[in-house]
Amino acid sequence: MGKAPSAPNPVTTAQAQTASNRETAITQNQLNMVNQTDALGNKLSYAQEGTWADGTPKYTSQQTLSAPQQAIANAGQATQGNLANLAKEQSGRLSGLLNQPLDWAAQQEYLNNLTAQNLDPQWDRMAERNEQALVNRGLRPGSTAYNNAVDQFSQSRSSAYNNANLGNYNNALQSQLALRAQPLNEILALSGQSQVQSPQFGQTPQTGVAGTDIAGITNANYAQQMQGYNAGQQQLGGLFSAGASLIPLLSDRRMKTDIKAVGKLDNGLTVYLYRYIGDDTFQIGLMADEVKAVAPEAVERGPDGFDRVFYKKAVA
Fold it and tell me: Strand 270-276 relative to strand 282-285: parallel, antiparallel, unpaired?
């Protein structure tokens, strides 16, 4: 009975699926581009500006500030310009500043003098008490024990002064470094002002449009056609089986309805899908009037006046 349905062309199916996916993506993009206006009157709008090389629409988005917000933005930009110019002017004096070596000697000397003024009276009193303590212990000036004790006291006094002067050195150095960094920090602060803030629009709800499964639909349709074809082959094979071929089957066109051609036999007879009048079940087979024109011996009229067909003879 005829040929089996042709399998779908994979290239054609893929092209159709790609075209469907492209249209779905364009639709999703257009649904998600929602123009917005915030509470301050700032606007966000979308507009199409031509197409890409493949014909896909090309869009641009534009933010527009309200008049008051634009005035604030302009003032902020002018302020930034002034600060940038100020930073540029002040940076000109950095070369001379950085070319000069650090000089903290005078400050260190000043701090050392303050230290001496503070420590000298204390250590002088301690020296008097130390000498008196040595005499009270019976040690006389010029004796070895006395000289050793005085030397030890002198070393302690010298160590105290050294530690104090070392601290003065670090303080003087840190002070000079801070003074040198101050103009640098000022210029960096002037040149690093924050930028004008853009309006904050709400997040656009994302609309997802499911793509059409063209490939799935195509393959499902092919499978359905193959199922129908195989069922027809099975039913037609039953008509020509050994047992059924001996029994004439009612094939008069007048007894059938919903007739539809579904294929042809090798001898040119058309195979139809139909159902008998008053019966909801679809059948497959031949039409007696057509068989009579090709093989009249295969047609027999029954006592009811309707023609029947011997299928074995019809295809002999």
Answer: antiparallel
Q: Is residue 122 part of a domain?
A: yes
DSSP the chain: --PPPPPPPHHHHHHHHHHHHHHHHHHHHHHH---EE-TTS-EEEEEEEEE-TTS-EEEEEEEE--HHHHHHHHHHHHHHHHHHHHHHHHHTTHHHHHHSPP--HHHHHHHHHHHHHHHHHHHHHHHHHHHHHHHHTTPPTTSHHHHHHHHHHHHHHHHHHHHHHHHHHHHHHHHHHHHHHHHHHHHHHHHTPPPPPPP-PPPPPPPP-PPP-HHHHHHHHHHHHHHHHHHHHHHHHHHTSTTGGGS-EE--GGGEEEEEEEEE-TTSPEEEEEEETT--SEEEE--HHHHHHH-GGGEEE-TTS-EEE-HHHHT-
Same structural domain for residues 248 and 167?
no
103 in a structural domain? yes
Could you tell me which residues are beta bridge partners of residue 272?
261, 285
- How far apart are the C-alpha atoms of 199 and 74, rounded to whole Å? 14
pLDDT for the residue numbered 178: 78
State the residue range of the domain holding 133: 95-191
Q: Is residue 87 part of a domain?
A: no
pLDDT, averaged per 10 consecutive residues of the chain (316 residues), comes to: 67 80 83 87 89 88 88 83 74 66 76 85 88 84 86 88 84 76 70 55 61 78 69 61 66 94 87 92 91 93 93 83
pTM (2 d.p.): 0.38
- What is the number of structural domains in the chain? 3
Q: Is 226 among the domain residues?
A: no
